[in-house]
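Onboarding guide, step 5: your first structure request.
Type a short instruction followed by the sequence, for example:

Predict the 3D structure of this protein.
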Amino acid sequence: MKKFAWISGLILIFVLGIFFWWKFYFVFGEGVKAGSLNYFVKKGVVFKTYEGRMVQEGFQSPTSGALQSNEFRFSVTDPEVAAQLERNSGKHLELRYKEYNGMLPWRGTSVYVVTEVINTQESAKTDGGTLPVDR
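The system replies with structure tokens like these:
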């Protein structure tokens, strides 16, 4: 009976370890997103993490007939990437990110973690506060 309990305990620990790895460390997706960096801050009560929001061009809607801004909320774990983002607030950026199945408090408040800034450009300026018109 003792042997059965030990084997069952080890199997349970192994299964829980695999689930924990899959939930928090398995990279579910990788990609690149482009848009204007809206804000970037370092915040938190116990774990100070870098958080940001990028507004992408165009609109998306979860329901037909409604409009919603297309925002990309992300976290950053690398201080060098964070410093680069702090210097480029308001600019058009291309960011490489990893998507996880779950978030960890010391990794940030988002399942999207930016790993690299690929490209930085000045945002398109309009003349006199008017919007450009396609003709």
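Each response can be followed by summary notes, for example: The domain at 26-121 is CATH 2.40.50.140 (OB fold (Dihydrolipoamide Acetyltransferase, E2P)).
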